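Researcher: Sequence of Ankyrin repeat protein follows. Predict its structure.
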Amino acid sequence: MITLFVLLITIQDYICNALEKGNLEIMKWLFKNGCPLTKDTFYVAVIYGDLEIMIWLKENGCPWDEDIFVRGIQEGNLDNIKWLFKNGCPYDEEVFETSVSFGNLDIIKWLFENGFPYEEDIFNTAVQSIRPWRVVKMLKNVKWFFENGFPYEEDIFETLMSRL
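Model: Prediction complete. Tokens:
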């Protein structure tokens, strides 16, 4: 039993190493030699952002779920997010809010243009997401929400000033 546990850790280390290095040939070899493709494999692939490996994982039946799409949002690679969406990766109704919290305006715009659902108070979420170390980035997002007519509460600008 202990040997099996050590073996599994070693296999997972090899998978993570191959994904980190973007080494598709090692991934193919691991798979050919019985290494299972799990949701965690896909999750790590999204973290490292190698689209070629993500495509290979999908073609070889690697499972995915909503967490994969959310991780893509968090990593901020719009091309990978577009690919996940185009290829049917599931997502939940909070994906827009997640993108606002992480602050990548290009992703926010793309989600909006593609009809992803969002809450009525998404403008407030943008303001609440402002942190001192990313003020400029987040203010651009707030400006975009304002310019695009998203509804906001009357005291939103007081809240905004308190976040700066």
